[in-house]
Design a protein that fits this description.
By secondary structure, the chain is mainly β. It is built from no helices and nine strands. It starts with 13 loop residues before the first strand and ends with a strand.
Length: 131
């Protein structure tokens, strides 16, 4: 909830994803972070085939290529490759760091389809075309 409370790297309310090295579970190390281009609160994140599928509440599904993490664990080379905005009404103000919108996503179908469920608008079935 750092985005809602204007804390740390999220003082501008843009979603922050922290990168952790957990090879030693007794001594995890935060190695960096990735900042989304819009304001929102992150919720559920799933890693699949070098990409992170992020449900970022009002900004919807954001897909970030994290395949460079082994070479660059700072997160600075992560790239957003796609997104699906489930609440475009707030785009004129740059998004909102409030609850609502996308709750979760499921990117694990062999077909490549991605399910995104939302609190207000139901289920979306998507397929990323720029893979």
């Amino acid at each position: 909830m750092d985005e809602m409370m204007f804390r740390g790297w999220a003082v501008d309310q843009k979603t922050i994803t922290f990168v952790w090295d957990i090879r030693d579970l007794a001594h995890p190390v935060m190695t960096g972070h990735h900042k989304a281009p819009v304001r929102a609160i992150d919720h559920n994140l799933y890693v699949h085939n070098g990409q992170v599928y992020m449900s970022n509440y009002k900004s919807g599904l954001r897909i970030v290529d994290v395949s460079s993490v082994a070479e660059d664990p700072t997160g600075s080379s992560f790239v957003e490759t796609a997104f699906f905005d489930v609440h475009p009404e707030d785009d004129a103000i740059g998004g909102e760091a409030v609850f609502g919108g996308s709750w979760s996503a499921y990117p694990y179908f062999e077909s490549g389809y991605i399910l995104v469920n939302t609190l207000e608008r139901g289920l979306f079935v998507l397929k990323q075309t720029n893979v």
